[in-house]
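Final paragraph of the annual report: two paired records, presented back to back.
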Amino acid sequence: MFNIILFQIITNTFAFPDVTLSFGTLMPKQKDPEENLPATIYKDNQINRYFDYDQFPLLSCCPTNLTKYKVDSLNLHGHGRQKFILPLTITNNENETIILRQLTITDYLEYQDIPVAPKLSALPILQPHQSIVVEFIHSCERQVNNTNYWSIQNVFIRFQDFQGLNFQYQFICDGSFHPKRFDWSNIILITFDSIVIIILATFGKIYSFRIAFVTPAKRKQFEEQNIQNVDLSPFQGFYLYWPQALAYMGLLLIALFTSMSFQERAEKIIQILVYLICVLTSFHFFNEIFGKFRNTIPILNQKLYCLKIRDYLSMVLSALLIFFYLYYEQPWFVSNLLSICILGSFIKLFKIVSLKDALQFFIPLMIIDIFCSIYLSQTVRYEWDSVALRYFNTPLSAQFPYFRYIYKKKCAWVSIFNLLFPGFFLGYVNRFDKHKQTYVYEIIAFFGLLVGLILWVLIQFITSFPLPTSIFTEVLMILTTALVAVQRNEFNIFYSGNFYDQILMDPFKNDIALQEPTTLEMFGLGATTQVIKRNTIQQKDLVQSGEQGLVLNSQLFAGLASVNRSQQQSNIIQQKYQNHY
């Protein structure tokens, strides 16, 4: 008996009553047929998820798909605010009378300001199976700005002896108003990403695997001479120039037209492909990090069954990243970690080897970027970046939350390809600087990237046209570094790439442990062969202690001996020439 009474007390005190809450059509009636439709908020003791802001991931940059009611445009003539009425119908499904005790409407975000006043059409007493209408009167300024053109309205409703209920909806005072899209998060994002990309570009050496691709020319050398006389440099990445640019153009066009035509259906396919890329690149990136410390932490190189310890650690870390990304519904900071993995992996696997190749790679990319910008301006125009994050919120974009949300946009974002391609060029100037023993080109290219991104953000603030970043970043980077090369009288070498590139030609020159004969899989031969690099200098002690003190190795004077020998030979020839005459 006591349990039954307690259950009744809890039910009557804490449960929300069996009512139906629904919005009618916005008045005056608007033209947009897809907006302002009647919608049920609460029915059968369950709230509609599109009226519950908490149902949407808080840390995800995907725009909130909360139910919205939008005014097409405001009448600029007249005085005072314009009024728009949204009727809320409350139907009592209980078998007893209930009394509406509290109904408040506030802005969900503190920096928004659209006043809403509720107006009852009758007494707040609902008889069984009867309805009342509450008019939500929205007051809109005739001249709107970023703070009063759009708002998320939070409604709290409570009946006597029952628990209250919160629900939210969006209200837009002027659908034709385009808010200023600048937020300081844009500057933070591009500055952080520029620093990340230049750091990644300085670590272009591949550590995680050592393989050598046997080309037809190399295979012919194997047949003609001893295998130990064939020079096989470890694989250090694929070269980039115009064929790779054309391949990227083809993939981009396929993805663009497929996504614009099918949207939600294409979203699933693209997400699966991106997740596959994330798994592979994060595994490779973590393996590269562990490979960097393979000599400092020897246990990383120890084998367990068929793989090394660092391989297992890389698998675990990459799996954890993907798990957190999916389980917590795409939080922006986990997405950025996956973006860094993609950038770091691709910068190691693909390399530009000259300014000439950079031009052949960048020019087709800028052409396709301009084409895509024109296409997007004709189709989605102002909301192109919101559409991208709504349907394709993946780690292919670097993200940072806005300090002040705007309609359909929660985060600043930039495509990682707008960072990756300049990163390829930063990798090249880094290797060129190492050859010249300077930091000039890398610093100039970095500031070219940073200034280009800032210019792009500022121009996007002025105009809604979707301008590509490549016409700012890549042009500035190439022009500034080329001018420096001309001034330093190094343009021919910088343009052609004809210099000693240690990372590509002899990446493990200073790593004694890796100069020993290494087992390399010969692709094309179908066998595993011991290969010793040609002209490999074995390590020797140049100074030894003997009975009479320190003894210097004769190899130190090999160069001097050869010089003396050549001088003696020239003197003998000259003496013979004089004796002859």
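The closing record of the year follows.
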Amino acid sequence: MSMRRWIRLFWLSGQLWLRLDCVDLSAAFAYHALQSVLPALLIALSVASRILGHDDGLIESLLDAGERWLPASAIDAFQAVVKRFLQQGLGAGLFGVAVLLLTASNAYLTLQRGADRIWWRRPFSERRLPWRQLVVRYLRLRIKGMAWVALMGLFIALDQLVSSWRLLGSLDLRAALLQAFPQSLVWQRPVSLGLDLTVSLALTFVGSLLFLWWLPSRRLPWRPLIPGAALCALALTLLNLLLGRVLLALGLRFQAYGVVGGILVLTLWVWLVGVILYYAQCFSFVCAARGLGRRPVLQPVSDRL
């Protein structure tokens, strides 16, 4: 394929992306994603409390880090929060699971309606469904949202595991794993940059392909989704390399703004991810339409819920 044709594909994808108001859809995705990130953070803190509760050295390191980064007036409050967090870790985790069960599908549903708008010009209609099917659909969306969060978390964990095996710095956890799996010591070394990028691209591509196939409310063939998944994997990997440290530096630079600054930085990151996901779907649609010389013929009314 010539360079001119590739440029035209990206140009048409951008036109479709603008015409369908994907910027607004990305903002809605970022808003709803925060409702899932915060409960997931509670769950992560609950798991961390189980580890920290048995590792005094790691607790001291955490308190020392807080003393270095926080102002003097906030150190006492930070120490009190850490102590209460260790005492109520299980309750925070259960509360996070309950809230995540209700909110995880909000971001997923936003992306799903955007995908339906891209591929079929309209969302999947729910007006003619009986109330029982609406209840079943609501529950299934919650389950799919939870599965989506778990799947993305698995791919992120695998990516970070390949990049560097640090085990959160917990000496007790490291010793327990080394005692159970002595041969794992060989793998606890950072990999080369080339292998890291290759594995990150491969994992991101597989996760993107599964997600783009799973996302629409109707069945899609695999082949039209491959260009969008490849573009999504490349863009997300470059975003991680180029903006990951920049956003972290911005968060540390403006740490005086506290929680508000952290939420703004996180919202910017999630919005960029939403922009990439919507543009990747537009790119898949344009590639499929240009390859057939017309609008792609897809299987109509097969709801995969």
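The radius of gyration is 22 Å. This concludes the annual technical report; the extension proposal builds directly on these records.
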